[in-house]
Design a protein that fits this description.
single chain; about 90 residues; mainly alpha; two-stranded parallel ribbon; 6 helices
Length: about 90
C-alpha cells in the first residue's frame, strides 16, 4: 500500500529502526527524493527527533549518501527534505 501511496515508511517502529542505523535517515530522504515519494509522518517525526545522531556516522558514509541524493534524481527535493527534517544543519 505504501508503494501505491508513494510513501516512504520505516518498517516497524521508526525510532528503533533509525537508532539501529542512523544512516537510514539519509537513505529515507534519498529514496523519497529520487522516487518523488512523501515520507510517512511518524517516520519523519522519528528522523527529526534523532537528526543529531547523524553526527555519529563517519563523514565518508554521509558523503556517499549525499552524493547519491544529488546525482540519482530529485536533488532539489532531497536538499529541501534534509533541511525540513533537521538533517542538513547536522551534516
Amino acid at each position: 500500500t505504501d508503494l501505491a501511496a508513494r510513501c516512504i515508511r520505516a518498517v516497524g517502529d521508526p525510532a528503533r529502526r533509525f537508532a539501529e542505523d542512523h544512516l537510514r535517515m539519509l537513505r529515507a530522504v534519498r529514496f523519497a527524493a529520487r522516487l518523488g515519494f512523501s515520507i510517512d509522518p511518524e517516520t519523519a517525526a522519528a528522523i527529526r527527533a534523532q537528526a543529531a545522531a547523524i553526527q555519529r556516522i563517519p563523514p565518508e558514509r554521509i558523503r556517499g549518501e549525499l552524493n547519491r541524493t544529488l546525482t540519482e534524481g530529485g536533488a532539489g527535493r532531497g536538499m529541501e527534505r534534509l533541511d525540513d527534517l533537521g538533517l542538513l544543519e547536522q551534516i
